[in-house]
Predict the structure.
Amino acid sequence: MTFGPLVTTQWLAEAWNDGDLTILDASWHMPAAQRNARDEYLGAHIPGALFYDLDALSDRTTSLPHMLAPAEVFSAAIGALGIGSSDRIVVYDTLGLFSAPRAWWTLRAMGHARVAVLDGGFPKWKNEGRPTEQGEVKRAPRTFDAAVHAALVRDLAQIQSNIAGAEAQLIDARSAARFEGREPEPRAGLRGGHIPGSRNVPFSRVVAPDGTLRPPRELAAIFKAAKVDLDRPVIATCGSGVTASVLALALETIDKKAVPVYDGSWSEWGARADTQINTGPAT
């Protein structure tokens, strides 16, 4: 099986002892879930997996969640975990397909192309009776050379410019109720609604009930139903850049390569007084 953007549990079981393979538990939960991803990792994880702390490996100088860290900061933090630039990396999470794609996108945005997401994540691995272990895995530090791949990242100014020029389609991964402004945002201080011109494809639509990504034909139909033209450029967004990465992964599997994510997403756009907001269904 070709490596990336998805690998199966069977692939991982067969490649588990490969010397260049690194496995990362990139689990993260919304604060309202009252779950501690690190504690859960310590209780059970795929053997040999390192813990990828989504918050600790983000930019700590901003109040916005999960923002990309400067390349030199990210390089030092990843290298300290024992991950090298030559590694093949497989990321997974404990919900099946939720936060792992954000780690996948981050690593790619930092110039590391050899990364894949475990389809179905830890739930599928456990349900198949595959081995797990407890405790923290530690490695000696290694050298990781990050360099931002700008084609995968969009900022506020670029989104504002895109509204004016409509060069790319903006696809929002939040629920329809949040997108339309009918349901309060989970983060305090954010207005409801969506960025003008956005299309809504809730990330849950592209994930099957068993936590795996839906087949390519179904994915294409889902985007088409949301009036997304797959022959035109797209940008993914969501609440904080996590589930936008699920859409970027889904689009990658149907040959929509190098889909950028609006890093600040609604946590930035919805908090500002000078950004335009629409409510109701996409028009």
Notes: Residues 96 and 211 are 4 Å apart (CA to CA). Residues 6-148 form a domain with the Oxidized Rhodanese; domain 1 fold (CATH 3.40.250.10). The chain has a mean pLDDT of 96. The chain has eleven helices and ten strands.
